[in-house]
Every structure is written in C-alpha cells, then in structure tokens.
Design a protein that fits this description.
binds iron/sulfur cluster; 270 residues; alpha+beta; 37% helix; 11 helices; 12 strands; single chain; 3-stranded antiparallel β-sheet
C-alpha cells in the first residue's frame, strides 16, 4: 500500500527500518507546536473506501458530490490500480481542502493516512508462510518538530491513540487486493477490471445500483440476508464488494456464480 507523500523543500527521510507493533518511537503533536499545520499541504493523500464513506457522511454530501468536489483519481504506481485521492487546493501552498485556521476541520473523520503520520504502513505477502505481514516505518521530515519529542510509545499504542485499528480492520480485504496485485508485478489489467475496482473503492451508491439494476443478481448467487444488508448498510456493501472483487480478479470464488461455468484449469488473475 502506498504511504502518504509530502514534498516541501525540506529533507524527507524514510527510515529504512522495518518497525513492528512493539517498536518504540517518541512523538508528540498538539495545536501549539511551532510547525502546526505544516504537514497538511502538498500531499499525496490516498483515500480508503471507508475514508470516503466517513468524510461523505460528515460533510452531508452524496458520494458523487464528495468525489467531484474533493477528490481526483490516481493510479497507484506499484499496483496500477485506480483509487481516489484528496485534491489539494489550488493555492501556492497546495493546502488540504479541510485545513482551517484552527487546524483540521474534519478531525473526527480524518483519513487513515493522516492518522498514521509520521508512520507509514506496508503490507506484503509472505509466500513461504502463505500469510500477509504488516509492517511500519518512520517518515522523518525536517519541518516536523513532534518527532523525537514527547513520551516514548510503541507503534501499537500510537495506532490505538489514533483510532487506526477500528478503521483498518473493515477494509483489510481491500488493502489485500492492492497488495496481491502489487506482488503480481506489471501485468496488464483490462480496462473493465480497473473500472470495477474503482467503482467499489470509491462509490457505494453506484455499486449498489450496479448490483440491483443490472444482470448482477442473475449471474451471482447472493442470499437474502446479504441482499438486505447490502441494500441498507454501505460498509457491508463495501465488504461484499471486496469479496466480489477478489472473486472476479483472482478467482477466489467468495461470491459464487448461479450457473456452474465450465471448469477452468487455472484461474488467471485479471
Ligand atoms: S484531512 Fe485534516 S489532518 Fe489530513 S491533511 Fe487535511 S487538514 Fe490535515
Ligand atoms: S508536529 Fe509534525 S505532525 Fe504535528 S503539526 Fe507539526 S509537522 Fe504536523
């Protein structure tokens, strides 16, 4: 997964040290710190599907309105998959659209990448042990005076203090899709697959219409309980979408087809 990227003419050092949840760091950030708000401009700020839901609801917008007003599409360099990122203002500093005089105006629902800073997060597939491994790293930027000050805390304590686990867990399968595509290398992805990934990743309203107003339910077997859930609950809809994407992109068969299709010897991703 791509981390947050900032470039302001200050030296930026990504420490080449893999951190674990038990690794320790010193960090303290508060409104009176001299560098207050400096970290909220000129960003590559990826939005997870859950970030979009939460920001959209907080701002009382439809998904289309939110996407149009605050985001732009972006292709993740390693995976080639399209996501939405926050569109910076067109001022000299390229400030975040949610930065106000007093700081972040959407603080309660600020994106996952903002919560992580100054940490970065990565996920990779341990093929030998057939499991996913999470890791963290430290992003040191010259202007950030919070680093190496304040009390010592572990990475896990920091994550919890920022409410990260509860926002990460519901979209873990989405992060896994990106990681799996990254690990496949530069294979070409059909345009249609990219469009479906982008729709599920950014727009639950469109994905719901796609399910209920296309031939989707003629093709895929979805039980009544799931149908009711995805009709009413956007997060459940997203999570259904991640399983569906894994089925159609990697052949994971998590959402089964109604009619048995001829046996395919080897499922080719994408
Ligand atoms: S969303 Fe808030 S915390 Fe994140 S960059 Fe914008 S102003 Fe800063
Ligand atoms: S201490 Fe770092 S994270 Fe906090 S406001 Fe300053 S630059 Fe941003």
């Amino acid at each position: 997964m791509e981390g947050i990227h900032r470039a302001k003419g200050f030296e930026k050092i990504v420490e080449p040290i893999r951190l674990t949840p038990q690794s320790k760091l010193n960090f303290q950030c508060y409104p009176g710190v001299p560098c207050f708000k400096l970290c909220c401009s000129d960003l590559f700020l990826p939005l997870t599907p859950y970030d979009i839901l939460r920001l959209r609801d907080f701002l009382r917008l439809t998904t289309d309105e939110f996407l149009l007003q605050y985001t732009e599409p972006f292709i993740l360099p390693k995976s080639g998959l399209p996501i939405a990122r926050l569109k910076m203002r067109e001022d000299e500093e390229k400030t975040c659209p949610f930065l106000g005089e007093g700081g972040c105006e959407v603080y309660e629902v600020r994106p996952l990448a903002c919560r992580y800073y100054p940490l970065g997060f990565g996920l990779f597939r341990n093929r030998d042990e057939k499991r996913n491994e999470e890791f963290y790293y430290l992003v040191k930027e010259g202007f950030c005076q919070g680093l190496e000050s304040g009390p010592e805390i572990t990475v896990q304590e920091y994550r919890e203090s920022q409410g990260i686990p509860g926002l990460e867990e519901p979209i873990f399968e989405w992060a896994e899709i990106i990681m799996r595509k990254e690990s496949l290398g530069p294979i070409e992805v059909p345009e249609k697959s990219l469009e479906l990934f982008f729709m599920v990743s950014t727009n639950p309203e469109r994905f719901r219409l796609f399910i209920f107003e296309s031939k989707f339910l003629d093709i895929f077997a979805v039980d009544e309980k799931t149908l009711k859930e995805i009709k009413e609950d956007d997060l459940k809809l997203l999570q259904f979408g991640f399983k569906w994407l894994k089925s159609i992109l990697f052949g994971d068969n998590l959402i089964k087809k109604k009619v048995d299709t001829p046996v395919v010897k080897k499922v080719k991703p994408f």
